[in-house]
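ok here's Multiprotein-bridging factor 1 family protein:
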Amino acid sequence: MGGPHRAEPDDDARPSSRRTAAPDTTGPFAAVFRDAVQRRGLSLDRVRERLAAQGIGVSLATLSYWQRGRSQPEQARSLRAVDALESILDLPTGALRSLIGPSRPRGRITSEGPGLDDSRQVFGERSHVELALGTDFAQFNNDLVALSIHETVRIDARRRCRAVAVKQVMRATRDGARHITVVHDEISAEHATVVPHFGRLGTVRRLPELRTVVAEVEFGRPLARDETALIAYTLEYGPEPAQCPHYERRMRTSPHEYLLHICFHPDALPTSCHRFFKERIDAPMRYERGIALDVSHAAHILLHKCPPGVHGMFWEWPR
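and the structure:
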């Protein structure tokens, strides 16, 4: 978790000098697409909006998978999007379409769990998560994919995060998955407690030097491939947590549903609350939108097939 940042302006507000370099159209489709997006200074959400303005609907998750090489455009609508992308990204006609390889077998991409490249794409190099997991980082939950994630964060009257309740449904990508590893950082690790509700609490490691807690929530038996499991737990932050200006979830895959629910104490209400998205932990915000509090002094976001990256909310306190 990190402090709030402002979203960067899109390419329409940037100097045209950002686009003077000739595009590189050699290499795999994913690399050329990714480099062209970066060269134009566009976020994937902005790319999606420009496609939508031409009547072409493509999800953020799909665009993210294309630029990471986890899937490729194959259907007629997707190929139409590729043709439009060449214009949007100032690429020569056919530059992207000519790089699309042969069709892949159905299910090949979605059956795989996240790998090291997926982790580094979101967490970056030498993140607290990688330091906390050590050599296990390369296999971090790579036999599971999240289907549904629900989180409820409770903020107390002193503007501090008291607890986070998490419920997840996962699917095993291979036989033998026995537990999920959960990592929470930016907390007073020596005082934090993990309380399981569904699943059995396994090994818990508190790392005060990293302000991180690593815990295993066990399923109770090995899962078969494609079998699902539900786990739920509450992370209690301890007696003196720090003031909390935001909360975020780092996702290496694209769950079917993500619900983030922030509950504020009635004696400590923020002046504003905003949803945000970042492509990785250390990246600037690429998307920001105001969220209203409801009658219960809470704000929430509900996302479907959200792209890999960092999703969350930040809020501003009265001065």
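+1. Helices lie at 29-40, 44-53, 60-68, 76-88, 116-123, 128-133.
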